[in-house]
């Protein structure tokens, strides 16, 4: 090809998408841990939600927020357990967590949850917000 000239498209080299009998376009799989991580990060961004390890946390894995979701379903149910600071308007906080987890999961994965259930699993007196930086 001479310098400065553009290549000419050749009709015999067209690219065609695969047809279904030959395998189709493929699948996308999102691991449950991805949905759980998104739910945790979204929950912790709400003022009043705490990152907390329960008293039996080392034994039972009781760390909050705890999120469970089955990302293999087209519209999964999401369960979020959170620890909150006292005093907190728990109804308003749960609504904020529910809305943000739903929005972020749909925005980042394209999977819109059927429902997001929020449980206040622990109320903590005198602890700072999850947004506080450790020095």
Automatic annotation (TrEMBL):
The protein, known as: Asp23/Gls24 family envelope stress response protein
Q: Name one Pfam family in it.
A: Asp23
Q: Where is this region: Disordered?
A: 1-33
The text of the family note is: Belongs to the asp23 family.
